Automatic annotation (TrEMBL):
GO cellular component annotations of the record: plasma membrane
Residues annotated as domain ABC transporter: 6-227
Protein name listed in UniProt: Cell division ATP-binding protein FtsE
UniProt organism field: Flavobacterium humi
Keyword Acetylation among UniProt keywords: no
InterPro entries: AAA+_ATPase (IPR003593), ABC_transporter-like_ATP-bd (IPR003439), ABC_transporter-like_CS (IPR017871), ABC_transpr_LolD-like (IPR015854), P-loop_NTPase (IPR027417)
One GO molecular-function entry: transmembrane transporter activity
Keywords, ordered alphabetically: ATP-binding, Nucleotide-binding
Length: 227
């Protein structure tokens, strides 16, 4: 295991051939909670997509959970993503399956076979996000905040070394956003490394942490009071 969860040196990030961010240098240590902020279109999502290999890293050097991003082959991407939990703005739950079935789908897809072990793991992660009593509900029967809690639980299923949360509160009202971020912070306090992209500066004021800002084609650390 390397000392850093994520290391980027002299990285340039592209989206569809267009340069989005350049001269990106960053080290993230185990257990950190890191915000990525910036206006829409400044590169937050492109940055996150590069980390989970949805966009290739072609310029610079990068490692994440012991994988080289710039030398990554397609066959390695599923294994990389098993070591990373990803939480999206739009939840991405399977609409025709219950909460429990959504969890089972992920475990089976990632190689779990023992029914008892799978159910024990599902109960454990749902309990961590306060959703253990709603396992039989369908996604449309849940509020937005409840759906996002399930999505966070899903991201925890394979005990990832890193959680990437891309605008996880973007579709939620302010109070629910605070509740969801509180869940993420508690997970972080239990040892998980989290990188969260957001445009909600109110959350940063309530839950301050190390913050990087995307602006003018680059990304840099900011002190809390200037965000």
């Amino acid at each position: 295991m390397s000392k850093t969860i994520l290391s980027l040196q002299d990285v340039t990030i592209y989206q569809e051939g267009n340069k989005i961010l350049s001269n990106v240098n960053l080290n993230v240590n185990p257990g950190e909670f890191l915000y990525i902020i910036g206006k829409t279109g400044t590169g937050k999502s492109s940055f996150m997509k590069t980390l989970y290999a949805d966009l290739p890293l072609t310029d610079g050097e990068g490692t994440i959970v012991d994988y080289d991003l710039n030398g990554l082959i397609d066959d390695d991407i599923p294994f990389l993503r098993r070591k990373i939990g990803i939480v999206f703005q739009d939840f991405k739950l399977l609409p025709d399956r219950s909460v429990n079935e959504n969890m089972l789908f992920v475990l089976k897809a990632t190689g779990w076979t023992d029914a008892g072990e799978m159910q024990e793991k599902i109960d454990d992660v749902l309990d961590k996000v306060g959703m253990k009593n709603l396992t039989g509900k369908m996604p449309h029967q849940l509020s937005g905040g409840e759906q996002q809690r399930v999505a966070i639980a899903r991201a925890l299923l394979n005990d990832p070394e890193l959680i990437l949360a891309d605008e996880p509160t973007g579709n939620l009202d302010p109070q629910t956003s605070v509740e969801v971020l509180d869940v993420l912070r508690k997970i972080n306090q239990n040892g998980k490394t989290i990188i969260m992209a957001t445009h909600d500066y109110a959350l940063l004021m309530k839950f301050p942490s190390k913050t990087l800002k995307c602006e003018d084609g680059t990304i840099f650390e900011v002190v809390q009071r200037t965000v």
